Each structure stands twice: as structure tokens, then as C-alpha cells.
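Retro notes
What went well: the complex prediction finally ran end to end.
Inputs used:
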Amino acid sequence: MSKENLSDWPPSQTSAEEEEEEEDDGEPKVCQVCGDRATGYHFNAMTCEGCKGFFRRAMKHPTKFCCPQQGVCVITKNNRRQCQACRLHKCQSIGMLKELIMSKEAVEKRRSQIRRNRMVEEPPVLSPQQEAVIQELFNAHEKTFDVTFSHFQFRPIDRDLNPMSVWNQTASGQSAKQTGRMDNLSSSYSTSTSTSLSSSSCSLEDEEDRSDGGKNTVFTTLPDVADLTTDMEEKEEEKEKKEGRSDGGKNTVFTTLPHIADLTTYMIQNIINFAKGLPSFRALAIDDQISLLKGAMFEMMQIRFNMMFNVKTGIWECGPLTYCMDDAVRAGFQRHLLDPLMRFHYTLRNIQLQEVEYVLMQAISLFSPVCELFEDRLKCSAGFGGMEFWPAW
Amino acid sequence: MSKENLSDWPPSQTSAEEEEEEEDDGEPKVCQVCGDRATGYHFNAMTCEGCKGFFRRAMKHPTKFCCPQQGVCVITKNNRRQCQACRLHKCQSIGMLKELIMSKEAVEKRRSQIRRNRMVEEPPVLSPQQEAVIQELFNAHEKTFDVTFSHFQFRPIDRDLNPMSVWNQTASGQSAKQTGRMDNLSSSYSTSTSTSLSSSSCSLEDEEDRSDGGKNTVFTTLPDVADLTTDMEEKEEEKEKKEGRSDGGKNTVFTTLPHIADLTTYMIQNIINFAKGLPSFRALAIDDQISLLKGAMFEMMQIRFNMMFNVKTGIWECGPLTYCMDDAVRAGFQRHLLDPLMRFHYTLRNIQLQEVEYVLMQAISLFSPVCELFEDRLKCSAGFGGMEFWPAW
DNA sequence: TAGCGTTCAAACTGTTCA
DNA sequence: TGAACAGTTTGAACGCTA
Ligand SMILES: [Zn+2]
Ligand SMILES: [Zn+2]
Ligand SMILES: [Zn+2]
Ligand SMILES: [Zn+2]
């Protein structure tokens, strides 16, 4: 195989044995481009599989090929790879037609048709193993996703009167209500229902794990919630500096930051518990657990927030609490992040996923490792095909 | 044939040789769409078979075709495949009528009418020859299919207490009962009724043939039952090695293996006797007999087992003995085999075949040769259309 | 026999992946 | 890049009824 490729450069003009692809007797069909064995008509010419694929690719990605021999190469089976320019020219000269390549739209239509056919004939039922995995994920999620936010402990949210956001929001009405609700509580930390959660630290010991009592593994080395929160706030700070707005916080007052920080902490804690509730996650090395959690945390949080996002009002409805984008602005988040993030929330929410599907998304996010080198920028696309909401920094 | 396809793009307007499909002299009718030889009027136009089929298909599946040439293509015999849009347009322009295509309901009515006619003229009764064949098969089967397992000689079945199977089985109840039954017998080999069968060898001489006394041919060269059993056990062993589980049997104890081996031997012996009872089988060369038996043995055994399979309980009821899938697991069979095998048993049993139909299935299996090259993997589909249960190894 | 529908292997698309 | 694969379209041959 290797020696064939050696001795045919430059493609000699002398070996112009004009192919007589007459079907002499039986079946010796010959590629009219390179002389290889042909497999039938492709784009209106008798060609081999190689020239067929080459022609399609060349036509789909219009690239200007350049011949090193002034375009006089004679294409053969062994040298066809050496000069794309002459190979393509030969393709066209023998009558290959780009019109017979299916158009972008036609291909897409064909694909969706095939998907539809598959759905019809192949029962959409899952194997028992698959069902079990889903059940496991869903159980862990159910135990750690506090829709009512009844265990949420927080400092009151302080909404500024002058909207900082340029987007109009219907937050004025709820602002008073929510602030008023805060005032009913004596302590500076509020909670919907009383819990034993200590406000200062949220260590990762399983002290609160309600799912499994005794079989807890060691989690003392998992990242502390405080660490993760600090990480994110640091990132915000860095970004601010880069944007040349680091005026030391003198002109901009992030009134909602304390509350949003508490909210973030609460979400992170629950997400860590979700991961801990997955046997397949606990089976990983502790360092891997940390890396996965760090890499996926932001995305998983957004996925969870999306489940509470109301597309009609643009408001996140977290139990008795409600948030609008303006609250994020007032916490110091920049348009550069919030713009694509909002697009993400509207897009994803409009798909109207079921809860199980959200859980699967979380799992995909969790188990998609992020390269250490890119941890700084968290995750860029996280495998969610066309739904990347993360700006390209 | 190849030359014709070369030069015809874009479909030229110049080649508009207006077809004169006058029946000049004899029969030179021409397709008004593409110019090919026409086979008559189809949907109100003189067309070829190709354009006839194309028109019907295009009308049945309302797909929007798109012409890459702004719809100016001129359709010819050689380029008609290259632009569906223009071909369909040409069809309609020459007067082809979709009204002449039978509607969905009309087609269905026609089909049932045909079925009815078939029933009338083709008597649903079988010819005497066919009846005779069936009778012959059934007789041979009846004499060799021991529903009561009264001649089954075996070592007691040792069921482990801890279920090895991950699937839940209702085997616990029967376990005790069946083991208890074994205890009533003194010898390590048990049998329901005493027979003269020697436990060590089951030679293929017709010493036990109750059907024909004297006209026995030589069968000493037929495969020994022991051979076949060994073959199958070897295959299981090989598979196990491939799956990297060949721990020398130290960790996995196949407690039921001795009994299952006896059961297999008994089944094989009866199936060989079934084949021997068929004159049409005996008429074959001895080597062919061996090949057919080897190739079909596993499948025929499963068919026989299926006749005793209880879909409700998932238990094979073999006379006084009962088996569940767990027994096979404990004999060393792997999920890779048992999974599709169980599917097969449930599927086939649910069809509720009559006994005669089971016998016909056995015969089909027996007389379907398996290529020597594939003997390793036994039979892959065995001619049972969509019921392949054999995993692709 | 004319003209419907049916069948199914060959032909020809795009896709995958080493 | 191209061999192998997967899926669809085509049309020659055939079955059936009026
Ligand atoms: Zn070629
Ligand atoms: Zn060149
Ligand atoms: Zn035609
Ligand atoms: Zn066209």
C-alpha cells in the first residue's frame, strides 16, 4: 500500500492511457477521474468512492486549490491525493455536476425525515438500565431541589429605587412587597421555615443529608460552598477591572449583592447535595468530584434557575421570592454576561422541557469535564448544542 | 450505457425533438415525459414505467421538490432522475392526473378483495401431500416429545440461596419444592419412571426406536449426544473468556450446571430421535444429517422449551419439574445470551401457536442449513423473520 | 388486454470513523 | 481521505381486476 504512493510524482502526462471504461465483458467499471475501480455513477459520472467524496467535499467548502504544476497533472489512482486542483478540474471536465449534490436545506429536511421515521418504528421506550439511571438522577434531584425555597436562609434584598437597568422591568411592584416581607423578620437573616443551618459555614459534611443516613463517604475535602461563591465573585471583580470600571465601588452600589450572594450559596449547596446523592458521582475520585462540580456549577445553577423562570413576566419565581433581571444588575452583573444569559433563559424555557429533562441536562452538565486550562472561563458550550449562552470572552 | 449519461446538463432546451408518439407502424410508443419507451397510458398519459411510478410516489408523499435550475430543465430518459421538480412538472403539464391514482381507501378495499378472492379460489385446505407431510412431522414429534418428562434421568438440581440474577424471579417458592423432590430419591441420578436408558452413553443406534422395528439404517456415525453437549458447553466457556470473566470458576459457582447439563442432554437426545423419525431426514446423506442437526439443535431445543413456557410466571413447566431463568444464570449462562433469549420466549409464546405449528417450526429449523463458516455462532436468524433472538457475537 | 398496485434489488444519495 | 455503512429512490417485472 505504501509503495504505490511513492512513485508517481509529479503526475506524469505521459501515462495518459485514456480510460476506455467500456464494460468489456462483465463488470470492470473504471473511475473516469482517477482510473480506480468505480462503484457506480456519482453526480453524473462513473467514479470511485474516493472521487465521489472528494467532489462533494470540494463543492461544499468552496476552497481555491492551487496546482504546483501549472495544472497539467494527470490524475491516477495513486497520485489523486497529490493535486486537489487538477483532481477537481478533472471531475468537472468529465461532467460531474455540483447541482446533483443535495442542498443544505434538502439535507436538513432529509435528516429530520429520518429522525421522524426512527421515532415511528423504533419504540421510544427506554431499557430498564436507562430507566434506572433516570430514576436515580430524578430521586437525587427531587431531594435537593427546594422549589418552595423553604430552607433558604438569607439577608433581606435591598432593591434600589432608581432602576439601574436599561431594560424595563415589572419589578417595581414586587419590590415593595418583597422588601416589606423582609421587614417582618427581626434578625438580619431570614428564612421561610426555621432550619438548623448555620449561617456562617456550609461545610460539606453530610450533616443535613436526608437521603442516606449512615453510608456517607468522606467529603471534607470537597470545595467549600464559600470557596465556590468567592470564586465567582472574584471573577466578577476581575471582569469589572478589565472593563475599566473599577472605581473601587464608589459610584456603583450593588445593593442586592448580599442577598444574591446568599441565594447563590444556597443554590450551590443544593447542587452539591444533588451530586452527592448520585452513587455514580460518589464513585469518582474526590479530586474529580471537585473538578466536575467546579466546572459545572455555574451552568447547573442556571439550569435550576431556568426551571423557575417565567417567560411571560421575565421573572424567576423562587417559592415566595421573586427576582427579575434588574436584581442581577444591582448585584453587579454586567450586560456582557446578562445579555446572553437572558437569551439562554428565554430560549431554554420556551422549549418547555419536562422536569425529568431538566434533570438530565443537569447530569450532562455535571459529568462534562472542563479542561483545567479553561476553568477560568468556566464552560463555554458544555455540550448543549446550539444553546451556548456563554459569551466568547 | 455509461456514455449516454455523460453530456446532458443542464437539461438542454435544444433537444426538444417533439416526440411523435404516433404508432407509426407497429409499437414504437414513446413516453411523453422523458422520451423513454412507453408501456401504455398511465394516469391519462403515455409514459414509461419509470415516470408512472415516479408520478404515483410523488403524489402520495406531498414533498416539495426544488429545482436547482429555476425550473427550466428539459427531461430526458437519461437525466430524468436529476431533477424531480421539473420531472413532476412535466408529468402534470402533459396531463397526468392524480385523480386516477387510487385513494388510500380504494387501495385497502382492493387488497381485501384480493384476499377474499384468494380464499375463494384457493381452498384454505391443504393438499393431501401437505397434510401427509404434516402428519409425518407430527407423528415423529409426538413420539419424541416427552411432555411429562417421565424418562428424564438427572442429577438433582442444586439451587443457590442467593439469587445470582439481577432480574426478580418467582423461583424461591419452587426451589424448596423441587429440591425436596430430589431428596426422595436415593441415587444421585433420579428419574421419574424407570427406564433402560444407560446414563453414560446415548448412542444413536436405534435401540430405542419404537416406530420402526427392523428397517434401521446405520447411524453410528451421527454425532454423539455427548459431543453436542460438550460443543455447547465449550461455546459458553469461550464466550466467558472473551468477556474477561474467566476466573477459573473460583468466584462464580454454577450450582445448577450438572442438572442443566442433564436436561440439555435429554433434550438433544429427543430431538435427534425426532429427526430420525422423519423419512425425509433419513433420506439425506449422513454428513448432511449431522450438519443439519448441529446447526439447528440449539434453536430446536428452544422451540421445544417454548412449548412448556408459561408467560404469566416466566417459568418452564417440564412435567413435574420447573425452571426459571435464574436456573440458567446459575448454570453459567450470560445475560448477553439470556436477554435476547428471554425476549424470544416471551414473544413466541405470546403468539399462542398450536402444537402442530410448533412442530412445523421445528422442521423449518431442522431443514435450514447453516453455513459451516458460521457454525461458530450457531444460527443468526434461522429464517424466523423478525424473531432473531441470537445475539451478534 | 389495458391499466391499476406491489415488489424488491439495484442505484445513488449522505454519514461515519479509522 | 475513502471504505463501509445507512437510508431513500428508482423502475423492471409481475399480480390482479375489469
Ligand atoms: Zn476516482
Ligand atoms: Zn495539478
Ligand atoms: Zn418517462
Ligand atoms: Zn429542474
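What we learned: Chain B touches chain A at residues 1-2, 5-7, 9-10, 66, 68-69, 82 (CB under 8 Å).
What to try next: split runs per interface for comparison.
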